Amino acid sequence: MRRLVLALGPVMLAGLAYPALAQDGDPATAQGDVAVTIYNNGQSLVQDARQLSVTRGRNRIEFPDVSARIRPETVTLSGAGLSIVEQNFDFDLLTPDKLMDKAVGQSVTLVRTNPATGAEKSERAKVLAANGGIVLQIGDRIEVLRDDGLPVRTVFDRLPPNLRARPTLSVTVDAAEAGAVPARLSYLTPNLGWTADYVALFDAAKGAMDLQGWVTLTNTTGTTFTNARTLLVAGDPNGGVGGFTRLAGTMDSAGTESNDRERLGDYYLYPLPARTTIANAQQKQVSFLDVKGAPAKSTYEFTNRWLGTSNDPVSAASVLRFSTSRQGGLGDQLPAGTIRVYMRDARGDPQFIGENRIDHTPVGSAMSLRTGDAFDVKVLPTIVSRTRKGDSRWVTKMKYTLSNARPGPITVQLAQDGLWGDVRIVDESLKSERVSAEPRRGARLAAVDLGRGAVGAAAGACADRAADRRFGGGAGCRGHRLSCAESR
């Protein structure tokens, strides 16, 4: 059953003033000069400068239009001669349902309208309950108000003291002197954050890409921040949220270059060039990066797990490689975000070919962005043999078959995962290199060149001690072989 105040008519409030509308049609705000610092982790610092009129001694000051998700424990109020005695955050917002809930045990006025004559009849009623419906006592009778289409409205005598039309922070201060005091209210709030989104247009023939970066602001705080100076902080202060992302873009090598972008400790700052209004329940995008013709190339990768074998060929990953270096690269750091890659088709129209996330990337980094699975490039990993050599030693032989159905030659970066502990390569037909020495993720990598329509076979062996340990090896076409040793 729907409640009377929602279904049967408007609610009349006595003694409640609503703010007037501004000339541009936006609701008036009690905010002053607002500055917002927004972090990647969805947390923001709001600084609101307002003029306060105080009397000497104790004053109770209300600050409407603060974030509905304010963290009250982070509030600070600074002003000459002001000291905070107490503060309260009233977040129980005014709605018809809340108004009726607060009226339980109190009397209201019901106004009924005769549909035939339009005549109104008023009578007093005591609200007994508002749980799934409105139960009233009218004189000696008990009545349940139903949503039956009859015109009935409820008039309340007063507004409950802790029910607010807007999120309001009330602060009791001790003022040294009477008069107007410039003050600054500062607090942290969640639900106001930003992410970086990138659009890359890759030209394979030119070996170049155009990259445009967008800041995406998202505000779900329940409050609009009007005409705010906005500063974005790239980095992850404590309190950020981490997680695993499938097919994350790889930073092959972290950059060591720097540029003249403003820093704050270990973070980079991106101030928006002009003030902006960040409306509640809104996403806003602002451009912050535009690079044309940065060098880039398309390659292919395949990483085989330890003792990985397959009955059917498996697609290699399609990878876009580029650099953020100032020499021959993008020339700027990249805040964490999603890169969406496009290529032009035969008609010259850009088409989406894949996307991936990247972590915060310094200037000078070498990047590999996996955009999806290659249709025409396949790898078939096979265990040829696994032989016990005594109680604690094994020799494992692997074979890889690679095929290329693309119209031109390609290069596949083929990696064998799991070379760790005392596993050693005893034979390989194509020279590989170790790309990870981390104890449980050791791997070796080899570059395999495949011509148009080519099929290449690769084989090798390793020896190890533990049956559950992984070996690493290289691979290649034209009879590649690999041998390694393990023991257990």
Task: Explain what the structure shows.
The structure is a single chain. This protein is an all-beta fold and 488 residues long. Among the domains are: 4-12 and 95-156; 31-93 and 164-190, no CATH class; 389-487, no CATH class. Helix content is 2%, strand content 56%. It is built from two helices and 32 strands. The chain has helices at residues 4-7, 96-102, and strands at 11-13, 33-39, 43-54, 57-64, 76-79, 82-90, 107-113, 120-129, 134-138, 141-145, 152-156, 168-175, 179-190, 192-203, 208-219, 225-234, 250-253, 263-264, 267-271, 276-278, 282-304, 314-323, 337-344, 350-358, 366-388, 393-404, 410-417, 424-428, 433-436, 443-450, 455-464, 480-487. It has a 15-stranded mixed sheet that branches. Strands 2, 3, 5, 13, 16, 18, 19 and 20 form an eight-stranded mixed sheet that branches. A six-stranded mixed sheet has the order 1-11-7-8-9-10. Strand 25 and strand 26 form a beta hairpin. The termini are far apart.
Keywords:
disordered C terminus, mainly beta, 488 residues, 56% strand, disordered N terminus
Mean pLDDT: 79
Q: How many distinct helices? A: 2
Radius of gyration, Cα only, in angstroms?
Answer: 34 Å
* Helix proportion range: under 10%
Question: What is the general shape?
Answer: elongated
Strand proportion: over 45%
Provide the low-confidence segments as ranges: 1-26, 240-247, 465-488
Largest sheet: 15 strands, mixed
SS class: mainly beta
N→C terminal distance = 71 Å
Number of strands: 32
